[in-house]
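re: that chain from earlier
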Amino acid sequence: MKPIAAVARLIGVDQLHVGTVVGKMSETKAEVVENIAACKDKLGVLKPVLPVASGGLHPRLVPALLETFGCDVVLQAGGGIHGHPDGTVAGAKAMRQAVDAALYGKTLEEYAKNPQELAAALKQWRT
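^ sequence. v structure.
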């Protein structure tokens, strides 16, 4: 993955899928962390590349994702948005609310006391 990330950076891509530490992808946490570093670490004058995580992602997984990836990440949560019991718009709101909770240092359950979308998502995805 390191050579792929280097070539991607050389040709100017904006983002690169690097695996995930939760969800349904099979990489180990160590492999994903190494892939993230390949995208973000200083490499001459080349700009960093946003690492992308996807594969079984939903709002409940956001804190673990941000802990591993940091804030410079693309989270692709198709089913985790479209599968929300109240529809796609509510799913998008729930995903954003989960990000906000993590950024504000609150647990998802604590943050979900007010936003209804996140509360419904936490019921939908128990783990």
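The chain has a mean pLDDT of 93.
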